[in-house]
Amino acid sequence: MVSSNSGQEVSIGSGCAFLGTVIHEIGHAIGFWHEQSRTDRDSYVTVIYDNIKSGYEPNFYIASASQSLGVPYDLSSVMHYGGFQFTNNSFPTLVTNDIAQAGLIGNRDGLSHRDKHLANLMYLCDDSCSSPPTCANGGYVDSSCTCVCPPGTSGTTCQTVTGTYYEAPCGDQDITTAGTITSPNYPSIYPPGQHCVWIVTAPAGMQVRIAFGAFGILYRSGGKCPFDWVTVHTDSDSIPDYVNCGMELQNQSITSSGSRLALEFHSYQYGNYPYYQKGFTASVTFV
Predict the structure, then answer these.
(1) Bigger pLDDT: 179 or 31?
(2) Residue 258 banded pLDDT, cuts 50, 70, 90
(3) Neighbouring C-beta atoms of residue 21, cutoff 10 Å
(4) Which has fewest Cβ within 10 Å: 41, 148, 266, 275?
(5) Rounded Cα gap, residues 76 and 263, in angstroms
């Protein structure tokens, strides 16, 4: 990015000409920092420095001062890195502290509500409002002098709570019986833009065993699973023990280290490759 007297130029490199990436870079140009650089980030995400490419560690450092203007941390911010940004080994560089929220980070669909809220505060968009309303539950006043309400709220001042700010992932985070887990739409090809989390808890004194049958996920490239992937967490925490794609887990079994096991499935928001995206089926038992 190069500044000039007439404004600020934004340079978009090869392979980065996607709407969300462009919005991310313009965000920097108008004064946004990376979300994971916030001083309160450790309450929401964990950086795994051992997995970061040498020389890229500063991209994950905490800023010396807060730039949030009171806007809450936003895992779905367009300024937040995804989990595998600058990985050196195909394992995550950044994980959410709550595994069920893992699919929120790395949004490149567009500005989140809280991104817009921060921009409105930075540029005093309600400064011309003579009698601005008081917005509740994370709403903000925009240049039209009305409240803009976040997801999960409604009403003229966002006073009615109808749900949660973050959308829940697909999957099932409370499995306690043996059964079968499949990718979305299985045995048909799985759709793009999915993130599912399954968490299995075994009876007292037992472990979880997951046995994959068919397994067809978009292939590995450059030693990594850059688009679609499955992770297995043998103790259900946010840091995976397995990151796989292609046919790598077909007919493979994995047993938890304790009484809990978690499984994540992710499909990239673009692309349609039916031959490679057949999905998976897995049986869950207790041993």
Answers:
(1) 179
(2) very high
(3) 15
(4) 275
(5) 21
Looking up tokens 């499995």, which residue turns up? Answer: 175
Token pair of 199 as six digits? 């968490």
CA dist 243 and 95 (Å) reads: 13
Q: Give the other-Cβ count within 10 Å of 143's Cβ.
A: 13
Is 25 an annotated catalytic residue? yes
Is 83 within 8 Å of 102 (Cβ atoms)?
A: yes
Q: What are the CA-CA distances from residue 203 to residues 101, 176, 200, 260, 285 (Å)?
A: 25, 7, 10, 9, 11
Between the CA of residue 153 and those of 72, 119, 273, what are the distances in Å? 16, 20, 37
Contacts of 177 (CB under 8 A, 6+ apart): none
Compute the distance between CA of residue 51 and CA of residue 252 in angstroms, rounded to an integer: 25
Instruction: Out of 25, 35, 57, 264, pick the active-site residue.
Output: 25
Q: Which two tokens stand for residue 139?
A: 């709403």
- Measured CA to CA, the distance from residue 119 to residue 77 in angstroms comes to 12
Q: Which runs of consecutive H residues, i.e. helices, occur in the chain?
A: 19-30, 113-122
Residues composing the chain: 287
Nearest to 193 by CA among 7, 12, 20, 3: 20
Q: Spell out the long-range contacts of 1-5 with Cβ–Cβ below 8 A and sequence spacing 24 or more.
A: 1/25, 1/28, 1/29
